Amino acid sequence: MLSFQEDKVELQDGSKYKLYGRAATISGAARLFHEDPRFMKKNLILPDAESISAIDNELIPLTYSEKIRSSITSNTNVSKCIHCGDGLSHNGMFVEIQETSLPFDNGIIHKKCRRPSDRILGTGSNPGIDLYPELKNFDYKKWFTLLPESQAVWGSLENISTKATHILWTPDQEHLVGTHCIKATLEDSSTRYIQHRGQIQRFTSENADIECSRFIEQARAAQESGNPLCFSSDGDVFSNKDTIMRNQQTPAKPIECLNFEKAVYTRGLSALHDTCKNYYAPLTTIMDERNNPILFNDMVFLISRPIDLKHFLENWKAIASTVENYKLNIIEDDKQFDHFMHKLRAKKISVLVDPIFDRHGELLSGSTISHMDDLINNKN
After folding, report:
1. Across-strand partners of 193?
2. Residue in 152, 261, 240, 241 with CA at minimum distance from that of residue 196
3. What gap in Å lies between CA 205 and CA 35, rounded to an integer?
4. Phi, psi at 208, each rounded to 5°
5. Among 182, 200, 169, CA closest to 334
6. Which residues pair with 370 in a beta bridge?
7. How far is CA 181 from CA 23, 207, 216, 268, in A?
């Protein structure tokens, strides 16, 4: 009976030896040996394959193998390393963990994360992701599960005529807490609700009165100026009529707001009117080995479509040196996005999403993200 503890193996007689690696098959052991530079000048002596094969075909080894196989095939988390926790998109290794001081476990790991006591069961690959070698350490399964009902702001940009856009970042201020909301009655007799990040904005009763009065006054002033407050025909955009007309690609007429009033909130309103779960997220960040965002000419770039990363990296050579050692992290929800933006804002680092530059470094397409307070301060 053998027992394993990190880089040590203990035999049944109590003697201990240094452990360099484990494998489920002779061919796996040979491959492990030949790929390790420490053994470049050493000879490999393998046991008799026939005797081992005979043992493997006995009832207990076969039963154990089936247990491992079932556990591996039922594991749906095959795009994250069970050791470091980072995403895993290429050259994975399936391993079994069976150490004296650890519970039994199995899963996929990066080759660089292999521990001496990991019993290698085989290698893994994803035919789809293998076509995109630039997606390093990318948790692709997590990404696809996050996309539904998310990225509302980036989806809305498809209907805006300008290529380079400026996005205002308004940090979350508990907009989903409160007993009241604000209802807008439109000129076509329909109703809409004031939203924040694609969700009905909620207030205390007192704050709803204050905000409602502010909207009524804003609507009166806008009407007198000939540029009334409106919702776009699809209800996704709330702004002045001229702003909506200038940015939309369809000829549909914006619908004017006639009145604003306080309303009691119930979750059925969100079921009818909320347009997303996450307004900004998910987004992909490009990080160094220390989990710090990589700077491109003192800017941080985020990606809304990681499948296009190859084209972005090629384009960014115009403004920054080529990036080789990086990994991709995912900003999973808007709360993580706010935290990420707060940290970069404190360091006065600019953030761009999906930027494309011309050969002179001028922004051709993509989005810059700024806090409202920063825009006000810059104007002053």
Report:
1. 183
2. 152
3. 67
4. -65, -40
5. 169
6. 168
7. 61, 9, 14, 13
For helices 59-73 and 49-56, give the axis angle rounded to 10 degrees: 80
Higher pLDDT, 125 or 355: 355
Provide the residue type at 240 as one letter. Answer: N
Report the alpha-carbon distance of residue 19 to residue 11 in Å, rounded.
12
CB 368 within 8 A of CB 167: yes
- Extract the tokens encoding 365: 């397409």
Q: Which of 355, 364, 372 is nearest to 302 (CA)?
A: 355
Query: What are the CA-CA distances from residue 376 to residues 6, 242, 356, 380 (Å)?
Result: 57, 22, 26, 6
The answer, as to whether pTM is greater than 0.90, is no
Long-range contacts from 11-18, C-beta under 8 angstroms, 24+ separation: none
Instruction: Report domain extents, the chain.
Output: 3-127, 173-273, 283-379
For 106-133, the pLDDT digits (tens) are: 889 999 999 999 999 888 777 778 889 9
> Whose CA is closest to 365, among 312, 313, 287?
312
Instruction: Please give the order of strands across the beta sheet that includes 16-18.
Output: 3-5, 8-10, 16-18
List residues bridging with 283 in a β-sheet: 331
| 227, pLDDT greater than 90 | yes
Q: What is the dihedral of CA 342, 348, 352, 357, to 10 degrees?
A: -170
The answer to whether residues 262 and 211 touch, using CB atoms and an 8 Å cutoff, is no
- Listed in sequence order, the DSSP H helices in the chain are 26-35, 49-56, 59-73, 140-146, 152-156, 205-224, 241-247, 267-273, 309-316, 334-346, 372-379
